[in-house]
Each structure stands twice: as structure tokens, then as C-alpha cells.
Design brief:
The chain is an alpha/beta fold. About 40% of the residues lie in helices and about 10% in strands. The strands form two sheets. The protein has an eight-stranded mixed β-sheet with strand order 4-6-5-10-11-9-7-8, with helices on both faces. A three-stranded mixed β-sheet has the order 1-3-2. The radius of gyration is 21 Å and the shape is globular.
Length: about 475
């Protein structure tokens, strides 16, 4: 008989609806695994057993009442299924470090909207997952917790900035996890941890009420082992609130993202553009990552899709606009002047750069990001004449050793190395398009290599349908890492 953590999140939710599984039992199972295995993977900054147990008991009561009244169909899609929250997001009454020792004593008084959604969705919160300082780099190494490591090889990084979330799901410490993505931070750790990581369209998920990203680069989203699990968590997280600066087109009445991730919602024949070269100057694509892209293209052709190979010119204009915007965003955390020297070198470097950006330069950078989205929408992916989906490797290299990307002596060189590791991902933060990393390839050493698909803005549901079709053709979720 399968252990509880071997069930998918949607299987767990179904068992809870039927009364075959208790949310209390399930939550205790994950708390036990966190206590026993988290030291190996560094997934959590804070574990919240008392809160999780109280929420699980309430979820059990609600499920029992729903069964008694014949209304289990009205329960949220992941009712009773534990979901940890990234430590960049605020949970009232729970410490939030933002990955920085400067905020080690900070306890928020309000929930982020995504936390409210998880509470209303009946998902117990087992803890806060590990993240680098302010979510700025694509590794998860900080001064408040041990490094997050991929369970496939614990000498290697789990990526970032949602490295803790991915490590938790990949090691069976959580069925799914909330994550966030400002330059690839959902898809990067999903790739190196062998998971599905979905970055929704800009405005699909609220970033409020207090930490709105008015640049539009960042969004919360789901990480899971299967496309259906990931889509179900997106159903929980998605929603627009008053005051949100962006909003994505809503699904038709009665439809769900999970519904689009089922086998009977497979897409028709699509036009897909496979990017053969990284759109960043000076990047060398590792042979394993190039092979992952080629195999994915062949798989998609075998499924009946039209796949063309194209290249996007490596123009430094977009990279420069993203870099300036990222640096300004780094300045927004309210760090006291006397505590600035306690920040990580990369954080100090980016904040210093951000303070040098003039208002006119910042506005120009934002305009550049918007123009990139417009050009792709109008030319490369115009409805009726352009491509439906873009395909590439998620990353330029396989999972790297812990510490391999850090360069505290030269943080400018470190930032350049981060860009070369992730040359494909930030494009879709700039344009606002939905993008997903799928675990379609493993290196000869047994390391996961993700493949990325990106859809038109607002077309999250069709992208999930394509992802589910790919998963059905080449399943992956039964592969287990050494830490499991």
C-alpha cells in the first residue's frame, strides 16, 4: 500500500472528501517527515506544527459536515491537503524573514491574499519555506537557514528563489507548495528538483495587500509533482482583489484550471516555436539541456503538433531593462541604514545599483519590458498567424553544486553568472506570459533537466492542457529521488 506522501495532492483531497483520509492524519504525516528529513534538504525556515494541527482539525470538521450534508462537491479542490508558504509571503502571527537575518524578528500582522486563499481553501500550513535574501538570486542560500538542496543530489542547490518550496515537494515533505516567480523563481527550482512549476499570467494571482509588485515581474504560483496537482493549487491561489494593479482574463463560468489539466481536455494541433539558442549574449547551452529541448520537440511532433526551430536575437536591451528594474525592486525592502552591512553582498550590490537609477531610467526600463511583451504578442505569437507556444530548456545548465553561483567578492560577476544560468526564464516575467517547467529529461548522472513551455498572455488553461498531454505521453511523477 502506498504511503500517504506517495499519493498525489488531488488523490489526497479525494480521499479526504470520501472520509478515507483525515486531514489531521495527513498533516501529522507531513510534520513527521519534515522533522525527520528536512535537515537533508533545507526546505523550511519555520515549521508551524500548532497552526497546522489547528487548521487540520478545522478542515476535518468541515469535511465531516460536508459528507453528512452530501455537499463534498462544494469543498475547495485541495481541502485538507497541507500547503507550505514561501518565506517571502506574510502570514499573520508567523515569523517572516524574507530570507534575511535583518528581518529575523519580524512577525506580520496581516495575511497576504494568497495566504487568505489557502486558509479559505482549507489547506493546513505546515510552515514557511526557504528562500534567498529578498528572493533576489536563483539559488537558496542565506544567513537564516541551511541551503536548500535538490533531493536528487544533496550536494547540489535546489535553485531559487523558491528553492525551499521545490525541495519540500520533491522530498515528499509537502504534496504541493506555494511559490513565487520574478525572474524564473518557480521554474528554476522546479527544473533542478524534477517538478512541475507554473508561472501564471501577470495578474492571475494577487500580490496584495501590502507587497504589490507594481512592475508586474513577479507573481505567486504553484509547484507540484503532477500537472493536475499544480493546476488544482492554481485554482486555489488565483483571483483578483480590489487594488490589484493587473488582472488576467478570467476563465469561462464553471471552468477550472484543474479541469483543463485532465486527459479529455487535450489541445488541438498547435504551432510551437522551439528556441534553439539562449536569448542572452555569451551564454553556452550545456549539451544535456540542449538534448532536453530536442527531445521535447520530438515528443511534441509525435503528439501531432507543428514544431519549428527559431532563434530570438540576443539583444541586450531587454536584459538591461530587466536588470535596472530588478535593482530598483531590491531597494524596496525597508532596511534600516545601520543594518545595511548585515545584508548579503549581492543584496547590497543590487540595492546600491537601484539607488543610482533615475526616475526617467526606471520609467524607460518599464517601458522596455512592456514593449517586449507587445512585440512578442503582435509578431511571434499573434493569434491566427503566429505561434501558440514557445519551447526551450528551462535552464542553460544542469543542477549546480551548492555555492557554485555565489561570488561574494564580486557580486557584479555573480549577477552575470545568475543571468547565464537562467537565460530563458526572465523573458516571460518581462512579457507577463504564462510559462511552465516540466521534468521531461534526466542527465546521464540522474539529475533532472526541465523543459519550459510558454503560452500567450492569459492562456494559462491551454498551456496546462498541453502540459497534461505531454505528461500523459511521458509520465514522470513515479520517479523518486534518493531523499524520499
Amino acid at each position: 500500500m502506498a504511503e500517504l506522501h506517495e499519493l498525489t495532492a488531488t488523490e489526497q483531497a479525494a480521499a479526504i472528501r470520501e472520509g478515507a483520509l483525515s486531514p489531521v492524519e495527513l498533516t501529522e504525516h507531513y510534520l513527521e517527515r519534515i522533522g525527520r528529513l528536512d535537515a537533508e534538504v533545507g526546505a523550511f525556515v519555520t515549521v508551524t506544527p500548532e497552526l497546522a494541527r489547528a487548521q487540520a482539525a478545522e478542515a476535518e470538521r468541515a469535511a465531516r459536515e460536508a459528507r453528512a450534508g452530501g455537499g463534498t462537491g462544494e469543498l475547495p479542490p485541495l481541502h485538507g491537503v497541507p500547503v507550505p508558504v514561501k518565506d517571502l509571503n506574510q502570514v499573520a502571527g508567523v515569523p517572516c524573514t524574507f530570507g534575511s537575518e535583518v528581518f529575523a524578528g519580524y512577525v506580520p500582522e496581516v495575511d497576504d491574499h494568497i495566504v487568505t486563499a489557502l486558509r479559505e481553501g482549507g489547506s493546513p500550513m505546515t510552515g514557511k519555506t526557504n528562500t534567498p535574501e529578498f528572493g533576489l538570486p536563483c539559488y537558496t542560500e542565506n544567513r537564516v537557514a541551511p541551503p536548500a538542496r535538490t533531493p536528487w543530489d544533496t550536494s547540489r542547490s535546489a535553485g531559487g528563489s523558491s528553492g525551499g518550496a521545490a525541495a519540500a515537494v520533491a522530498a515528499g515533505l509537502a504534496p504541493v507548495a506555494q511559490a513565487s516567480d520574478g525572474g524564473g523563481s518557480i521554474r528554476i527550482p522546479a527544473s533542478v528538483c524534477g517538478l512541475v512549476g507554473f508561472k501564471p499570467s501577470r495578474g492571475r494571482v494577487s500580490s496584495g495587500p501590502t507587497l504589490h509588485d507594481v512592475t508586474g515581474l513577479s507573481t505567486s504560483g504553484p509547484i507540484g509533482r503532477t500537472v493536475e496537482d499544480t493546476a488544482a493549487l492554481l485554482d486555489v491561489l488565483a483571483g483578483v482583489h480590489p487594488g490589484d494593479p493587473f488582472s488576467a482574463p478570467s476563465l469561462p463560468e464553471g471552468e477550472t484550471f484543474r479541469g483543463h489539466a485532465r486527459a479529455d481536455r487535450a489541445p488541438g494541433r498547435l504551432r510551437i516555436a522551439a528556441l534553439t539558442e539562449p536569448p542572452v549574449e555569451g551564454v553556452t547551452l550545456h549539451p544535456d539541456c540542449a538534448e532536453a529541448g530536442r527531445r521535447a520537440a520530438d515528443l511534441l511532433r509525435g503528439l501531432g503538433h507543428e514544431v519549428d526551430e527559431i532563434s530570438i536575437p540576443a539583444d541586450g536591451t531587454l536584459a538591461g531593462a530587466f536588470s535596472r528594474t530588478w535593482s530598483v525592486m531590491a531597494t524596496l525592502r525597508p532596511v534600516p541604514e545601520e543594518a545595511e552591512d548585515r545584508l548579503m553582498p549581492l543584496s547590497r550590490h543590487l540595492r546600491a545599483r537601484g539607488r543610482e537609477v533615475t526616475g526617467q531610467e526606471f520609467a524607460g526600463a518599464l517601458y522596455g519590458l512592456r514593449m517586449a511583451g507587445q512585440v512578442i504578442a503582435d509578431s511571434l505569437m499573434a493569434p491566427g498567424s503566429g505561434y501558440d507556444v514557445l519551447l526551450s530548456p528551462t535552464l542553460a545548465q544542469p543542477p549546480l553544486p551548492v555555492g557554485a553561483l555565489r561570488n561574494e567578492e564580486d557580486p557584479a560577476a555573480e549577477f552575470a553568472a545568475l543571468t547565464h544560468f537562467t537565460p530563458f526564464t526572465a523573458l516571460y516575467n518581462s512579457t507577463g506570459q504564462p510559462a511552465v517547467s516540466l521534468p521531461l529529461h534526466w542527465s546521464p548522472e540522474g539529475l533532472p533537466i526541465g523543459v519550459m513551455l510558454a503560452g500567450r498572455y492569459g492562456a494559462d488553461a491551454p498551456l496546462l492542457a498541453l502540459s497534461a498531454q505531454v505528461e500523459a505521453a511521458q509520465p514522470w511523477h513515479d520517479r523518486k529521488p534518493p531523499v524520499w
